[in-house]
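#help-structures

NK: newbie question. if I give both the sequence and a SMILES, will the prediction place the ligand too? trying with S-adenosylmethionine
OV: yes, paste both and it writes out the complex. here, I ran yours:
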Amino acid sequence: MPDSITSKEFIEQQYKPLNEELARLRELNETDGVPLILRETEGMLSVLLDICKPERILEIGTAYGYSAAFFAAKCPNALITTIERNPKMIEKAVKCFEMLGLDDRVELLEGDAAEILRGIGENADTTAYDLVFIDAGKTHYREYLELSERLCRAGSLIVCDNILIHGWIYDRKKPGAKRHRTSVKYMKSFLKYIKDREDLTVSVSESGDGLAIIRLNDK
Ligand SMILES: C[S@@+](CC[C@H](N)C(=O)[O-])C[C@H]1O[C@@H](n2cnc3c(N)ncnc32)[C@H](O)[C@@H]1O
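OV: that's the protein plus ligand as structure tokens.
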């Protein structure tokens, strides 16, 4: 045993997968190098889901479908809509939902998230989403928030992943920070935007790669 490990490593050690299927799916994502929610993020989402007991969940950014499958396992009565534009990811996610028997509860919408969200708005006769998970396109978070909040109600939660983008947002000297300065610029501006809005309750934490938990309050 080493004398010391990092706080992140220590926190990772506290993780317990929800079930065997999700543990295998996480392993497959990691082997294929596919981005998915970190263990710490999953823990935070787990508690949030237990508290808010969502019946309808909207996710932006499906990848292989890990987080959507996690939502479905955690909330057995919830309907989940998840959006993905990459055909390779879509193929894997479709197989994943079929394999886990989730295709009747998880709806995968294929295409660009902003376009799809606008389309959902046009057929506005839908029940509100109780929880939205934004996990795609760091430069589009404000757009995704504004488009998805129209589909929510007062009290809904909007959870945004990767808001610290590998620490680049607060440390310009970190390797990679320069190359990703556009994402950093947009994310900073998004964080200022949610901070300035009086109708939101916002928590910004270091959880995982940085998590913003937003509650929509009465306007
Ligand atoms: C971080 S991954 C999602 C991981 C997933 N939520 C999980 O934890 O298992 C982000 C995904 O968003 C998708 N994406 C990025 N921009 C998008 C857009 N404009 N419309 C739809 N999907 C997009 C990417 O193709 C990628 O698969």
